[in-house]
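User: Please predict the structure of the protein below. I'd like the answer in C-alpha cell form so I can feed it into my own downstream comparison script.

Assistant: Understood. Taking the following sequence of 156 residues as input:
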Amino acid sequence: MRVRTDDEVYRVDAVWLGPPKATFPWRARYVAWGVGIVVFLVVLTIERQMGVGFGFFSTAWALVATILLTRFITQRISHERPLTAVMSMWVRELTAPRERTASTGGAASAARIRVSPQRPRPKLSKKQRARQQAQHRRTSASRKKEVRGVRTPARP
C-alpha cells in the first residue's frame, strides 16, 4: 500500500499572470505582489527622508530597488517557511542579546597604582615575630648601656 503526501498541492504556486488574454511576461506569486507593494512604499519613504525629490528617475530607481529587495525576500519564503515566520525570526535575530566584544578600559596607566614607601616584608609566624622583637630589644638595650671607664661624648 502506498501513502501519498500532499506535497503536490503545495508545489503549485499561487500565481497571478495578469488579466485574461493579456498576461504578464513574468510570473509572480501573490505573496510577492503584497511584499512588493510594501517594499515600494518603504523605499519611497526612505528616498524622501534622504532628501531625494519625487521624479521619474528617482521613482524608476525605487522600482529597481523594490524588485531586487522583493526577489531577495521571496526567495527565502515558501509554504514551509511563511513570511510571518521569516519576519519573526528576523526580529528575534535583531533583538537577541549579543556577546560584548569591546573591551572596557584603555591603555595601561600607572595613575592608580599605590606605592608604599617600604618594601613588602614576608609574613612572620607568631614565634618568629616574638623572637625578632626580643632580639630587637636586646640590641637596642645594649646600645643604651653605658660601659664602665668609657665616657660618652657630650650631647649638644
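That's the full C-alpha cell string. The chain has a mean pLDDT of 79.
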